[in-house]
Amino acid sequence: MNGEKCQEELIPIIFKEVYRMADKKIVCKDCNSEFIFTEGEQAFYREKGFENDPQRCPECRRARKQQRNANRGNNVRWS
């Protein structure tokens, strides 16, 4: 039984090590610059339920979001 207890104690440690994420280098699909998708960002994405890594660097994501928000104001139709 003592041997079983040791195995049970090791399972969480092994599980954490297997699922520990390293920083990833990704190339932005808009500007082709390389950016780092950090371990913390990956944890945030996983927590939010996002299944895919980002395709754009933070600067291009910010610019794209600003462009989307600006276009929302242009799409208002007056009757």
Q: What is this structure, in a nutshell?
A:
The chain is 56% helix and 10% strand. It is mainly alpha-helical and 79 residues long.
Structure in words:
The protein is mainly alpha-helical. It contains 3 helices and 2 strands.
- Helical proportion, percent range: 55-70%
Main sheet, how many strands, which sense, barrel?
Answer: 2 strands, antiparallel
Number of strands: 2
Which runs of at least 5 residues are low in confidence (pLDDT < 50)?
none
Q: Averaged pLDDT, please?
A: 82
Number of helices: 3
Write the layout of secondary structure elements.
Elements: H1 2-18, E1 24-27, E2 34-37, H2 39-48, H3 58-74
Antiparallel strand pairs: 1-2
Provide keyphrases for this structure.
79 residues, mainly alpha, two-stranded antiparallel ribbon, flat
